[in-house]
Design a protein that fits this description.
alpha+beta, about 140 residues, 6 strands, single chain, 4 helices, two-stranded antiparallel sheet, Gyrase A, domain 2, four-stranded antiparallel β-sheet
C-alpha cells in the first residue's frame, strides 16, 4: 500500500507529464546537468535524494531537508519580470511552487519538495525550465 506522500507525488508527476520519465536518458540527450542515482521509473521516491551534479545549481542540506538554489542576474527589469511571470505560470500548472526572492535585478530561486523534505523530479523539471528560460532571456538581451 502506498503512503499519502507517494500517492501525492505520483499524482503531481502525472499532472506535470513526468510519469515514467527517465531523467538519466534526458540528461544524456539534452546535456541537462542533473543526474539521479537511479532512473526515474514507477515510484518517484525510489530515486531520492536527487543531487544537482555538474551544475551551477547548489544543493544545500538544511534542517528542513535538501534544497536547490540558484541566482539569476538580469540587466533589464522587464526581463526579470517576464522570467518571474513565466516561472509562476508553470509552477501554478504543476502545483509546485518555488521560493523566489528578488533583490534589485537579481532573482534567487529555491526549489524543494516540502512533503518529503527533499528534491524531487518536480524540482528538476522546474530547474530545467528556469535555466532554459534564462538562456532565452539572456539571448534576447544580447540584441537590445
Amino acid at each position: 500500500m502506498k503512503s499519502l506522500i507517494e500517492v501525492a507525488l505520483h499524482k503531481a508527476n502525472r499532472e506535470a507529464g513526468l510519469e515514467g520519465f527517465d531523467f538519466t536518458k534526458s540528461a544524456a540527450g539534452n546535456n541537462f546537468p542533473y543526474v539521479s542515482r537511479k532512473p526515474v521509473m514507477g515510484n518517484p521516491l525510489e530515486n531520492l535524494p536527487i543531487k544537482a551534479e555538474k551544475s551551477d545549481w547548489t544543493t544545500i542540506e538544511t534542517s528542513n531537508g535538501s534544497e536547490m538554489h540558484k541566482n539569476y542576474k538580469f540587466r533589464l527589469i522587464e526581463h526579470l519580470l517576464f522570467f518571474i511571470e513565466e516561472v509562476i505560470k508553470l509552477s501554478d500548472k504543476m502545483n509546485h511552487h518555488p521560493k523566489i526572492e528578488i533583490k534589485e535585478k537579481d532573482v534567487y530561486v529555491t526549489l524543494s519538495t516540502h512533503e518529503i523534505q527533499d528534491i524531487s523530479s518536480l524540482d528538476l523539471k522546474l530547474a530545467k525550465f528556469c535555466d532554459e528560460l534564462f538562456e532565452d532571456v539572456y539571448y534576447i538581451e544580447e540584441f537590445e
